[in-house]
Amino acid sequence: MNVVLAIGRRILSVIVTLLGVSVIIFVVLRLLPGNAVSASMGVSEGLLTHAQVAALDRYYGVGQPAVQQYFSWLHAILTGNLGVSLSLQKTVSYLVGLDLPVTIELAFFAMVLGIVIGVGFGMWSALHPGKWQDNVGQAVSVVGLAIPSFILGTVLVVYMSSKFHYFPSSSSFVGFFTNPWLNFQQIIFPAFVLSLGIAAAILRTTRGAVLEVSGLNFARTALGKGVSRRAFIWRHLFLNSLTAVVTMSGIQLGYLLGGTVIIEQIFILPGMGNLLITAIHNQDYPLVQSVTLIFAAGFVIVNMFVDLLYSLIDPRTRNR
Amino acid sequence: MSVSVTTATSAPGAPEDVVGHRGWFGALWRSRNGRIGVIIVGIVLVAGLLGIWGITPYGPDAQDPSMVLKGISLSHPMGTDQFGRDVFSGTLQGLGVSLEIAFLSVLIAGVIGTIGGIIAGFLGEWTSAVIMRMTDMMFAIPTVLFALAIVTALGPGIVDSSIAIGVGWIPIFVRVVRSPVLALRESDFVRAGRVLGFSRLRLLWRHILPNVAGVVAVQTSLALAWAIVAEAGLSFLGLGPPPPTQSLGDMVNNSSSLASIAWWTLVGPSLAIVIAVIGFNLLGDGLRDASDPRTRTR
Fold first, then answer.
1. Where are the domains of chain B?
2. What is the pTM of this model?
3. DSSP letter assigned to residue A173
4. ipTM value > 0.90
5. Residues sharing a CB contact under 8 Å with residue A4, sequence separation 6 or more, in sequence order
6. Hey, are the CB atoms on A17 and B140 less than 8 Å from each other?
7. Is the pLDDT of residue B141 over 60?
8. Given an 8 Å threshold on Cβ–Cβ distance, is B278 in contact with A276?
9. Which residues of A touch B150 (CB under 8 A)?
10. What structural domains and CATH numbers belong to chain A?
């Protein structure tokens, strides 16, 4: 009962946050100058009669008062079509339905790689403080933090395609269920590039947390009573550092989602980031606002699960 | 441009007895990260200023048809591009543009965020709750996406990019500043000041603000590192300041198609970004060490 109540409160808070986010996004985009309807019509605009322009404006909701526009957007979100794109003349939900799986797959692989690399090197560093292994870990974290993903991505694409004539993204993107092996080749390189930045942050957190835990009394006791090294590392050190690692991973998801936008451009992946950039160039604000809101929703909802994970990982937080 | 630097230099940070006579700079210099950071940032700032003032070996737009796509040489330390332009000169100029935008955006984020954080920490529950709730909501939008949304609305340009990048960083300054203010509000010297009848403004200006200058300086340095990356990212996507203004991100983007035959065109601007980011990160680490005596031994 208590658990249900806690989860219910979290969900409510997520909904309130996302409503606020939608207001912020809407207010920011309302600064947009120009008329996107005529912009999307391009040259042919001059051929339209005034009545036609007015009808189009009415259809797309241009010229309504801001508050009314906000609520019609909110209505579109709640009913599920997410608004109508001005430049592509499709419902946003249709466009997102095509592109979201690509971004989710990319983000998922990047997150998994980031956690594996980060936790791996972080543990390795922390178990050999001050030794060469530690220096290797530090080097990985400096490289991951200092080299922006778009530089790494560009270098990788140039190097692979010029030296090995290998660029899986040059053929158009295929879904996982169509051709899993080609799909994997197309996703794994951008995912790796994206993962290094988060790996660096997770590495630092893991190293710090493990070093802190290994200095505590229970760790010394465990070693003293002769727990095997393997059990000591994984049961005593790793499990007790897990909360910090999970928190950091949740926070890093924000950077990761932002990073997908640039990486999808470099590796020519037809994901949400690609959709967003197209929308921005076309000043297609119904599309921009819905895509941004979906990114924010993904971030907030995953972090809600992260919060709920705490009680699974760390029994001490259950009674709070 | 100089404002963020002065914020950093005016950080009193550590108490007098720890820092001794050498002051904040001595404490910063004593931390290894801080020392390296100061040197790198110094070099980066000088290089950027040379770019801004146009003191470069060649004009950044000076084309030389006889020197197209030449590799690294004494006269062209970073080679030349497809128009025979000197990559080193272009990098200096691009660095100047990147630094301008980075400093302007951090100035926006730092001033608004610090004021917001002080208000949220010092004023009543209700104001605080409203501000913190708003920062939570802003936090929910990944900073790069926030910047993209603002660029959509404002269009490209140096000031527009700065606003776009700066706004997303405001909530981080709010959070970082608020927690020490909460502690300071209940500290003895602030209470004493209140009993003595000091006005709120005086308490904030003379007693609270100097004591959060340390955390603000640390955050400023880290934010600068992030802003350089964010600006380069925006320009890379073609959403930075319009031509002829070239930032480092534009240069990376332009050279990506050339890099397979002329790798040096990619190396120059990329190296400038990476070095600047490492420098500001190390400086931030050093400032943190210097302003917090507890971490200095690590």
1. 21-53+87-296
2. 0.82
3. P
4. no
5. none
6. yes
7. yes
8. no
9. 28
10. 93-280 (1.10.3720.10)
